[in-house]
Write a structure and sequence with these properties.
Blueprint lengths: L6 H34 L6 H8 L3 H7 L3 H21 L5 H18 L1 H9 L4 H4 L5 H18 L9 H20 L8 H18 L4 H18 L5
Length: 234
């Protein structure tokens, strides 16, 4: 005999619908924030403007996500998630994967240049660097994985310390990003120069830690980057 459906089993679909509605409104808010940040930077991200653009009321935004900094953190977190997914799909191996990860990271930074520059200029750099889910933190973890694989494949010197190398990679990348952020974007080709500087620095770090057999491709990367930095072409 079939038991009558209880209220407890009938309620979950209703809860699920409510949760889907919340998720949909949250997505609208985050996408609207991303659009504002991409075109106007942090300065343009007011809660009122966000409410108008997303079509979600202010009380609902505060309830779903929180204030402006919470919304900004959510946008950066989602950019980090996209970066991780793209990195996971990378085809490079070993040391070449380190360069590919750096390229993808800088793609994320330069694609959202107005957002990145304004985060730095507004003194909100810890959102990029210190949070567990920050972009630089995700970048570091991706590099650690790549170097661990390179070490297992025997292309690093026996005394090389992958974690120390990654710390240096992330530090030099951060410095180059900060310099890029305060450079007039209309002067020369700042994106290309930043990318070349990061590639050059990573190459130098790796060249000093690789086996002779693996050093050739790394040195080729260094030479290509140096050509760009000296005003030539690749």
């Amino acid at each position: 005999m079939t038991e009558p459906t209880s209220d407890r089993t009938a309620n979950p679909p209703e809860v699920s619908i409510r949760e889907r509605g919340k998720a949909e409104r949250r997505d609208r808010v985050v996408e609207a924030a991303r659009e504002i940040l991409t075109t106007e930077g942090v300065e343009g991200l007011s809660m009122r403007a966000l409410s108008v653009q997303s079509g979600v009321s202010l009380p609902t935004i505060y309830s779903l996500i929180g204030g402006r900094d919470d919304v900004l953190a959510e946008v950066l977190d989602r950019l980090g998630t996209v970066f991780e997914a793209e990195t996971a799909a990378s085809s490079g191996e070993g040391l070449e994967l380190c360069f590919e990860i750096a390229d993808r990271f800088l793609d994320t930074i330069t694609t959202h240049a107005t957002l990145t520059r304004s985060v730095i200029s507004e003194g909100l750099t810890p959102m990029l660097a210190d949070a567990d889910s920050g972009l630089l933190r995700r970048y570091a973890l991706a590099l650690v994985t790549a170097l661990a694989e390179a070490s297992a494949a025997g292309v690093l010197d026996d005394d090389a310390e992958p974690v120390f190398i990654v710390e240096q990679m992330v530090s030099l990348t951060a410095v180059r990003i900060f310099r890029w952020a305060i450079t007039d974007p209309t002067s020369g080709a700042p994106d290309e120069l930043m990318r070349a500087a990061v590639t050059h620095g990573i190459g130098l770090l790796l060249a000093g830690s690789t086996t002779p057999a693996a050093a050739g491709p790394v040195r080729a990367r260094i030479r290509e980057a140096q050509t760009v930095l000296l005003g030539g072409t690749k």
